[in-house]
Amino acid sequence: MATEPAVPGFLSIAVTIGLVIATGLTLFAGYR
């Protein structure tokens, strides 16, 4: 995964946002 240190910040931010959104939707669906 870390073989292309060209734009690691953008990829990390994108992955983090994706995980946060997925977790939020899962928790929201679970509570409702």
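Second entry:
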Amino acid sequence: MNTKNTELNTATVCSNLLGALETKSQTAPNIKWFENENILVAKDGTLIRTKSKSTMPKDGNDWIFAFPKVPEKIKQLAEQEYHISILSNQKGLFIQPGQKNPKKELLKTQLKHKITTLANQLGISFWFFAAKTDDIFRKPRIGMWLLMALHANNSIDIDTKSSFYVGDALGRPKGWMSAPTKDFADTDLKFALNVGIDIKVPELFFETYNSAPPIPEPIHCKQLVTDKNDLGSIYDGGYSDFISTITSSIEKNEKFVVVMIGSPASGKSSFVLDILVNQYGLERVNQDTLVTFKKCLDLTNENLKLGKNIVIDNTNGPKQTRANYIRLSKEYKYKVYCAHKYIQDEIIAHNNNYRAVSAQLKSAHDWIKTEENVQKFNQEFKNKELQYIFDVIPKPGNFVSRIVYNTYKSRYEAPSKAEGFDAVFVVPFTPSFKSQQDELLWNTWLC
């Protein structure tokens, strides 16, 4: 990734696997390391591939330049006074605070040795950032760009039109320029899109190829959002039918219970709170709040006695779980409606990531302003230590483990009226936002 400042030409070459820097002298640079729970930083570093051709390096000496012309190309950038930074995802280095992991400590030592060896060979000033945690700093999120811009580049304005990113995780298919395998990811491409700079293909940037096949554009999960109501014959209708039904029941003073079905990060609870509770006055029963299933049944029973309309805001995947609420509701002569919050797996993953990093992204967004292809940065961070930035970035939110989703899917049983429901509706996920900033950030690439 190359970036250009409006005051000083800067370049950042970013990739997980390739790249190198040409030395200006034989003098070994003074490497200054910074490390905390989130990130590992060195002032001076480079990008490479393994000499052994293994996917993972065997040791700190297992590296070579990815392309013969890498040193020459990087030297040209340095001579043009570009700022050069390397941004690398290194989740494998993360060690839980207070714990010891000799294997990961060895990997970190080998990585530092690799960077040190390269820096001793190269005389060009550059920065190396390694994201160890799954938060704002992990690409394709913009956290490492933020650190580069605020600290390494000292909050100097950046000309995004003249800046670019060199990366090999581009989502290219097998056979692209005769490649024997497909790219392992498309993280670099998404990162460049998030930052708003050009992406450079390594084979074209470092070699003499004049052209290459187009790179497939990544599909953002927002393109998968559907408002279709006819997602299956098991449903009696969609969102509008569901709303019409409960509205009619309220007007007729018919008492009812809504049993929600939906995975974590499906938007189920937001729908319940924003629509069913705030607009229609239903009483919410939620196990995240009440902790135990028994307390959920007890609160449901109490509200039934009081003649309240109720919504059961739990995942409710298994039939047996739903049966308890249906049986209890029927004892009080209530109608029971099922509302299935339908969502694709890709959107679940995106929502989970958004929930975890949204507060951090909002801070980052507030610190960067773009005006006519120029990024301007909050001058509060000028000449500040790196730790100062970490101290003011919010902590990440809760990230729901993939195990939780897999457990829900393994226990999920499709709902039907045969269970005792008076009607079964599908409510497809559609994103709703409280601000333009929320919408802007949700529409970025997060995974």
